[in-house]
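Continuing from the previous page...

OK, I double-checked the sequence for Carboxymethylenebutenolidase homolog against my notes and this is the correct one:
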Amino acid sequence: MANESRPCPCDIGDRFDYGGRGQELQVEHIKAYVCKPPASTDKAVIVIHDIFGWQLPNTRYMADMLAANGYIAICPDFFVGQEAWKPSNDWASFDDWLKTRNAGKIDKEVDVILKYLREQCGAKKIGVIGFCWGGAAVQHLMLKNPHLKTGVSLYGVIKFFEDRSSLLHPTFFIFAEKDEYIPLEQVTLLEQKLKQNCKVDYEVKIYPGQTHGFVHRKREDINPQDKPYIEEGRKDMINWLNKYL
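Thanks. Re-ran it with the corrected sequence; updated structure tokens here:
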């Protein structure tokens, strides 16, 4: 997976052949995918995509799963029209590509989406989940944004905790034991910082034998050995949201 010429081992994994049950719409300057539950609700979840962008079928599958569990789910294009990373791109250009897509600079877009959810969807309790690049974005928001109730960061690169680790909201961190991009020492360090500084509920969970992207990029039907962990990760995510929204 990862070697010197590939700074990010994010391969697309199993690209789901999935069309999505929701719809695409425009929210001010942002395109977004929205899926709503059958019954009306005042609970919503913002889904933050990985480097492969807001149109990846796998991420829409996760948004639809949230809607099936009773949440309004919205997956905005946080790259705001810039191209998502493609598996065919040259990894040597990844760092440059990332410079214009900073997971810590999404506040303006989040404000627009929060306003839409409150005013157009009647949402009162709003949480956020994110994968990989989006997992890092969740960490940023949990440290900074007062308007969200809770967050789930799935294998988010740990980079916003250098100078502060007092989370504002209950946050669940999902990590993979064999993630070549996020060494377990970093996870241990994160846990230590949270233990020292954190005043709200949090949980850090490492899933044995799993690799980066396992919750949304692996198909359980063709990875039987991983199936229990994929399902457990998804269930844990939903349970956390149910508890805090």
